[in-house]
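Lab meeting notes turned into a lecture example. A postdoc, R.K., suggested we walk through two folding results consecutively so the class can see how the record format repeats. The first protein's sequence and structure tokens come next.
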Amino acid sequence: MKRSRLSLIGLIAAAGLALAGCGSSSTGPAGSAPAGGQDTSLTDIQTSGVLKVGTEGTYKPFSFHASGNGELTGYDVEIISAVANKLGVKPNFQETQFDAIFAGLEAKRFDVIANQVSITDERKAKYEFSTPYTVSTGVIVTKADDNSITSFDSLKGKTTAQSLTSNWYKLAQQSGANVQAVEGWAQAITLLKQGRVDATINDKLTYLDQQKADHDQSIKIAAETSDKSLSAFAIRKGATSLTDAINKALGELQADGTLQKISQKYFDADVTK
């Protein structure tokens, strides 16, 4: 469920840098600073009155259109909108496929990415990140009446349902489970409830999203990973004044309960810290 895909991004970004090198180097586009110049990322946004936000628009419950073709909404959409309000500007959402979203940030089509971007060391080397606004774990989901699985060690010899392209498949294997391949979460839960597998591993946010919709009392979280996944807004390198302003806004929204309220709306839980 987390957005950790990086395919083609490096090639696109490299091409963009090569083209930029053919032009004048005296000044950069709005929001950038010439070599040794001043960071104007925040003042440029405040002057324009607009925060340009890159997002998918097809990633429920984080960024999606209500009823398929209605207003853009979602957990990430509401949080960045609240941040923009704190900055005294309006959000302008620009929808794009995830594989092109970082290239769009680098090309300055938008100022920030709001799309459940996981913080990784590779990305931190290329971009600035806000304070995380989503914290999640990996979870083992079992039938509600199954008490035989209480940890990842107890998956040894059990059968789990996993997508073979996910990190959860690797974790299931490392835990000694027999893995039955499925296409995704929905199929995994179906097999679990039918008793054809013992468990499935996935992101806790996926479980919470499903439970928000279905309130399924026949399944439960049996165990969680100790490692946590952090998601934050991605911002261009060098746009430190904007990053600092976003972090200040997030701190205020955390303190006044706004982040928790948005989280409860979409997950019936606080996933913000």
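The second example is placed directly after the first for contrast:
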Amino acid sequence: MKTVALIQARMSSSRLPGKVLQNIAGKPMLLHVVHRAHQAQSIDSVAVITTTYADDDAIEMLCKEKGIPCFRGSLDDVLDRYYQAAICFKADIVVRLTADCPLLDPAVIEQVVKTFHQNSFDYVANVVEVTYPDGLDTEVFSFETLERAWREARLRSEREHVTVYILKHPELFRLGSVKQEEDLSSLRWTVDTSQDLEFVRAIYNFIKGEEFGMKEIVKLLKEHPELSELNAGQQRNEAYQKQLQKEMEAQTNSR
């Protein structure tokens, strides 16, 4: 069974364009994410999946330069992009990661992947019941699960946000959740804004090198609580919430 981490990346972020290639500690954000994914021992290979838009040529060029497998597909139908990439890389198990999470913890990725392999789940994640910081999101699912979602999902939110259809249908899929005792879901470690980027750069500046994870960051934030103020007050999964609101309004107007 081949387990492939597919990292979705694009340059056309609305709030922080080009964020995935922003410099953090001397190299593009995307390379930090790829490196951290490679550290998870249960993952057989790592690939970047971007879009066919010209803006994303820079992502493909970086991947070629660094020898990173890269697939290009639909901009808006990200579910299709994942499905086609999974076929391309012959993935039996897909690990979904995003390129705006340069503080991903390989140990957390490993825990989610192992939970999937050790049980009879179709989908396992640490985002079903959220206890981890925003920015450590890891989702794992079988190719068969991805294929069914790809075949049956209809709403725009279900195509743009890869696993929404799966999560909306627990009657169809066996869902597993990875949680931790301490609830750290209020912490924001993803990069959607310039404030987020400033926060992540500060973390890398305080903790030198690459080999650190969630425990080291939490310890740092307890010692320097002012760092958390750099990107405080932002909503988790804001883009998805806005898309849901649009669909609800459209359904109401069509009645």
